[in-house]
Amino acid sequence: MAALSGIEIALWDLAGKLAxxxxxxxxxxxxxxxxxxxRTGTPDxxxxxxxxxxxxxxxxxxxxxxxxxxxxxxxxLERYDPECRExxxxxxxxxxxxxxxxxxxxxxxNMRQAFGDDYDISVHCHWALDLRDAQRLSDRMAPYxxxxxxxxxxxxxxxxxxxxxxxxxxxxxxxxxxxxxxxFRPFIEEHGVDIVHIxxxxxGGLLExxxxxDMADTxxxxxxxxxxxxxxxxxxxxxxxxxxxxxTMIERAGYDYPWLEDIIVHDGPVIRDGYxxxxxxxxxxxxxNPDVVRPLLxxxxxxxxx
Length: 306
Fold this sequence. Notes:
By secondary structure, the protein is of the alpha/beta class. It contains twelve helices and ten strands. The chain has a single domain (2-296), classed as TIM Barrel (Alpha-Beta Barrel).
């Protein structure tokens, strides 16, 4: 599905360039001129308030991001407390000990103090929990007002998702490992999710994303995008995001490769103050930069123009 999604996105770019229209026009028009992004990352030593404040000064104040996803309970104790296994924490299980919960609270409290009361923070769980511990974690996180609890339960749909969404004090977000509208359908129709989280370059491409988002809209659910993709995938995601009324944010994973944006020809930063502009140029509105891309090709790969 990821391969098909990549081909589909490339064909939308080609169609737009042949028609002389931006892709968002081919998808029905746009609701916004720029799309909000959220940063993903947790500072080293996040159990220390000073470390979180230093991190916030860079992410919020220096780089201008307006939202962040943090914690990642899947690796919480291994990262901050090497002795955790002595207190009932097992990474291969789905249970959180009281020690885990207190550490999650401490980190979230530090992040909230560091970023401020009006900053959007979400909590990542990496499908690591069972129902009861997901409910417990939601209760513990609720006083810090996260915008969502992401991927708390195992990927496939079950009634547990509905139960969690009904009882959670925090919005539930999932979907990055679902493929096509039929896998999203039960989550949407049964209200097993509050925020539908689509990975555009692997969930079916631009049109399938639009279909999933329209299905979510009929149930008054918000849509956000998971996005570990390159700048090209990010820009493609922004084109379809502009055409979705019930859209919120696109992820920007915390990768800081110096050449990341230079894969394409551009003037100035592609992402400014936590937003990406929606290009009015034909197709996706971008061209590859051969001077950057060619040296990055793996052995045996060919430049498309050769």
